[in-house]
Amino acid sequence: MKTKYLLFIICLLTVVILPIGFCQDNTQAGLPEGAIARLGKGGINIMRFSPDGTRLAVGTDVGVWLYDVASRKETALFTGHTGQINALAFSPDGKLLASGGIKNRIVQVWELETGRKHTTLRLTDNIYSMASLAFSKDGKKLVGVEDLWGIKHWDVNTGRVLLDELIERADDAIVFSQDGSTFASGNKDGKLLLWTDTGQQIAELKGHSSFVKGDGLTRQIISDVFNLPPAKISTLDLSTDGKLLASASLDETVQVWDIDKRSKLATFKGHNVAVSAVAFSPDAKTVASGDVKKKIKLWDVSSRRERATLTGHTRRVCALVFSPDGDTLVSGSDDGTIRFWNPVTGEEITTFTSGHKKSVKSIAFTENDTNLAIAAFDGTIDVWSLKNHRYLKTFADGQSDLTQAIALSSDAKLFACQGYNGTLVSIPYRFKNWEKSRGHRPLQLWELNKGLELPVLTQKGIYRAFAFSPDNKILSGSISRGIRGWDVITGNELFHFDTKGKTAKRLAFSPDGKKLAAQSSFGTMVWDLNSGDPDPILDSQCNAGLSFSPDSGTIAFGDHHGFYLRKLDAAQAIVGIELPDKYKVGEYYSEFTFSPDGTALVAAGRDFWDVQIKVWDIGTGSELTTLAGHTQRITTLTFSHNGKVLASGSSDGTVLLWDWEKISTKP
């Protein structure tokens, strides 16, 4: 028989009113200063149920979303972190929630009934990452593995550090026992280690085997050259009673271990790609595993056999968790959805929620500024209303596993992309992306208003970047042999520039459509399209960020030393904004755009861990203001056509809308 909260999900007969209230408009939840709205909820990293099963906490790239399970409503968004949330823990009584993760200087403990901060726990200086968290059995102590180098114990109520112990490197994937007394870790060679909560190593298990033999350096070189997956542990889970350990690896297997006997009980083979998520049922009789190619498998621990394969997600399964009573399996995916499943029959119960997509690649305002189109890493486009900040629809005809080259026209009417059949794996703990391409698809060009694919472009090749001219008449693409441009209507090639073997990673037309800039890892080139001259009018070594001024006469780009403005009819920079001494170390900018009136430059980048947007006065070279709110690299910046709204898209899976008038007049 289903639990009460599951009946509520299916029938929707009851609505539970929580003291902190529902986030009726989640685009307004946890907004940073100066922001109008947040579109999207951020990519999923981890999910945890409250002990009574009534709440689901979802750790994302922008914060912690708290859901009421019965009503399927968001009740809170906990923000204030500077990076991804990869570590979550409920207190045994369900009243507190601890959150932390990569690039975070703190662990935050939240009061769930009020939504307020209970305690802020500081990490060691210069160590800004928390791998895993757990409350002690009595709920008075919080235990964490800090940046894989140390164990910390805190008094939950006072924040006082009770234990701060350096340990031998605890590797990449880490999971605590339910009472926080022990934890397990897995390393890049597939080995599994067992530890006490004080950092004492208990045992070492052989674990998974690499596809490639030899010493560590040899395996790494061979794996890189031949694009072979190592045996690196991708994720772990401990059974509720702490007696069994499940390990998943890039070697495409799941293993189950008896902790007391230090022996392997089973190896489950059935995934044909890297396994990205694993979870035990509360009774430890079932193991669920999810992979990077969308599938979830259920395994019977006693019989050592696969029981069911669950399908429905369209992207990598990034998190799995069972409800406390074991009646429901919950999965989170890079496709933005959280789904509930019956773990006995394997049937999908419901799509619990959506909006948690990974990585924004491009954004564009419609011509009248009524809507915003957001293109994601997988080639799907979400359209949002700017009047009420509501999601309207998704264009999915151009979707693929990955998209390297992707572009929206400035009025959101045209969309160009080239997809890849492959896999994308976020590997804990550093969460570096590992890609394995299995071939590319043809270039696609779509007219979004009509949902029609334009058939005239049959250009072959592997493209790194696309860009539309301001009048939508030209599409330019970057390939290994140079830069090409075609007439959108006829498909005729209009130009082909030689980049001397440098493949451009981004392209940009000037606002007047007369110039084209291409940027590679080796520098930036600019061509005059009207001259017919195949030689660039500018060839700079600056390789970060690219933007033309509104009058098309100046270009902005940067490098590790600063960023510069250069007039295109002069041999020297006119401003050459070089970062002041206090900003030089650790500060780097990779996205630029000019203000609509051309008096300010908006620069997005990072300062060590912190992702930020800075606004600079072009006339004086002085910094005007700093905007914060994204937690991962900002991938795109653009202004609305009326110049009132600045939109920033990020790898954290969200777009922030900023009130430019307030920003530009901020003292």
Q: How is the secondary structure organized here?
A:
Blueprint: H1 4-11, E1 35-39, E2 44-49, E3 55-60, E4 64-68, E5 73-78, E6 87-90, E7 96-100, E8 106-111, E9 117-122, E10 130-135, E11 141-146, E12 150-155, E13 161-166, E14 173-176, E15 182-186, E16 192-196, E17 201-205, H2 216-226, E18 233-238, E19 244-249, E20 253-258, E21 263-269, E22 275-280, E23 286-291, E24 296-300, E25 305-310, E26 317-322, E27 329-333, E28 335-341, E29 348-357, E30 360-365, E31 371-376, E32 381-385, E33 391-395, E34 402-408, E35 414-427, E36 432-440, E37 444-447, E38 452-453, E39 465-468, E40 474-479, E41 482-487, E42 493-497, E43 506-509, E44 515-520, E45 523-528, E46 538-540, E47 544-548, E48 554-559, E49 562-567, H3 581-584, E50 587-594, E51 600-607, E52 610-617, E53 623-627, E54 634-639, E55 645-650, E56 655-659, H4 660-664
Antiparallel strand pairs: 1-56, 2-3, 3-4, 4-5, 6-7, 7-8, 8-9, 10-11, 11-12, 12-13, 14-15, 15-16, 16-17, 18-19, 19-20, 20-21, 22-23, 23-24, 24-25, 26-27, 27-28, 28-29, 30-31, 31-32, 32-33, 34-35, 35-36, 35-37, 37-38, 39-40, 40-41, 41-42, 43-44, 44-45, 45-46, 47-48, 48-49, 50-51, 51-52, 52-53, ...
